[in-house]
Amino acid sequence: MKHLKIIIMAVLSIFTFAACNDDNGEGSMSPVTNVTATPFIGSVKLSWTIPSDSNYYYTLITYNNSDGQVVHKKVGRYDAKQGVTTATVGGFKDTNAHDFVLTAFSFSGASSSGVKVTGKSEDISTAKDYVLSTVKVDPDNGGAKVKWTNESGIDVKLIISYKDMKDADICDTAEAQKSDSVVLTGMQNTTDVTVIAFNVKDGVKTSPKSYSVTPIMNPDDIIKSGVEYLTLNTGGWQNQFNLSQDNPYNQYEYTIVTTGGDPFIYINPLKSPRAGTVLKFRYKASQDWVLELFWVDAGGGAAGGRSTRVLIPASSSWTTFTHDYGPEMNKYNWHGNPGDFFRMDWGDNGGVTINMRNIHLE
To answer: pTM score, two decimals?
Structure first.
């Protein structure tokens, strides 16, 4: 009997040891495979095949940075594409060899054995050349969009220069530590754009790289001679909105942000007889809004029952609005003589942003 008890206790201790090992999770998850390390600027690009186990959750990358500090980086299962995961491990200040240990973990916390791979980073001084090589300059409305890629995380800046439509020299500096873009404005014709990149750490610059771009121009965005563009009477009576003019290239552009349920402003009186009965302008709007015009004769004021309401849909991009008000002008005997004007009401709600430009009759 004594020997039987000893055997039972031995068996139980084996099971207890196995259970403790299982709780720690060591070796109970399959490791990652096909691990590679590719040098990159100030970093190393790692690639691996994830375990096929449906319980796989993430891979933990462990390594020492250039300062000798231990760093841990988690990369989840959902970052994999067709079973292969890639990750950029950055922040290296040297080009020495570094060991990376990849450990797979399950949803329950079990872990695999670690898989070690050794990799080196490239000198960060090449970051400026890398970023400049990715730069693209594409046409944009009335300008251009400069786009670039920077997956290295190295602090790089771009110096972008060109001549605007007023023949003024424009020079902007863009933060390019990460992939992003900036919009250039003030163009009407084909324009040469020059880009220079430099590393913030040492200030060393690349040679200039030139691009030629033709902006996207809607004919309705071009200021035409001989047209009387209607302007808002910013010094007169106005109600429940904030008004700004932020486009240095178009004095006829306005940004209206309504702050109440009865936003309105008057236009300045006509200087010449109306050119026609069609009201035309370019606009963007954050939501649908109702434009209500109160027809006013010279020296008069807005009067109820002498107005016209038109629903205008929201638009996130510049859109041309046209409406023939001929019947309403005849109905209310508004002749559009010099000195006549109208009140513009910007809908019935607060919190609406409306951009307008080039308001005129034709």
So the answer is: 0.73
